[in-house]
Amino acid sequence: MAPSAITEEPVLGVSPLKGQDKPSVVEGKEKTPLEAISHGILMPGIPTFPDYTSHRRHILVHMAATFRFFARSGFTEGQSGHISVRDPEFNGLMWMNPLGRHFGMLTAGDMICLDIATGKIVGGNTSRPANAAGYLIHSAVHKRRPNDIHAICHAHSNAGRAWSVFARPLEMLNQDVCNFHNAHAVYARYGGIVFASEEGEYIAEALGTRNKGVILMNHGLLTVGHTVDEAGFMFGLLDRACAMQLQVEAAAANGIPKNIISDEEAAFNFKMASESNILYREAQPDLEYEIEAAGGEDAVARGFDALQRVAS
């Protein structure tokens, strides 16, 4: 648990046991995904906070750590790529990264706050501009799905761009890619660099009402989540799934047959691995590594207290 986190969301089906300071799995009822993966004490889910300031700090620290994970994963391409996270207090505002600052250098104090509806910069760090194309894409998605999407990730990763050329969805080739079973789409057109709101709307429409990711033909990948942790983990997973699909296609071209996971098994895998609390947990090993490597949470939070106050 990060130092800024105060309490954890309760998970149905668990209760504290005498002499134990963490909940344990209760037997005899259907297990939640976190209960199913936890042997002994229960792995905590998405944290909650006593006030909006501490919640916002946690979000921006984890947003910066996600960018650092992206840098370590090789998802950088000049000034391309952006993450947005909806503000925990003001539902109509979102935080984005500044244009032109390397992912691996970002801290909470670099982030810019924008009005989703208008694009107006309303707070945060105003020393750099936001990415105009990023605003058009992210605002369209946030407006389409205001209730279940709180974070969006987009970058021009190598494997994602390579697989996007085929404008094909991924096959369920392995257990991990089942996180996208019936939950990813393909945007099978290319409209150039996004400098008009229509292209953002087209991407949001392709993502649909329930998908967790979309493959943008000749462009890259976009993933969404209840938390920035989830969206970031899913982006990495989607990119690795594209790389594996390319490797499998190369082998299959030489006559080696594929074994595809059945729809029934893929649906079960999706059910047990794609809930928001467990996807938050999936992201923590990489984010904790980035925070530790940066010198601790205070280092990644640098500049947060100096951010211009936001207001709805």
Number of helices: 9
Order of helices and strands: EEEHEHEEEEHEHEHEEHHHH
The average pLDDT value, as a whole number, equals 91
Report the C-alpha radius of gyration, rounded: 20 Å
Helix content: 25-40%
Main beta sheet, described? 8 strands, mixed
Number of strands: 12
Unreliable residue runs = 1-22
Structural class category: alpha+beta
Q: How is the largest sheet built, in terms of strand order? A: 8-7-6-5-9-12-11-10
Describe the structure.
The structure is a single chain. With 312 residues, this protein is of the alpha+beta class. The protein is 38% helix and 15% strand. The protein has nine helices and twelve strands. The strands form three sheets. Strands 8-7-6-5-9-12-11-10 form an eight-stranded mixed β-sheet, sandwiched between helices. A two-stranded antiparallel ribbon has the order 1-4. Residues 1-22 have low confidence and may be disordered.
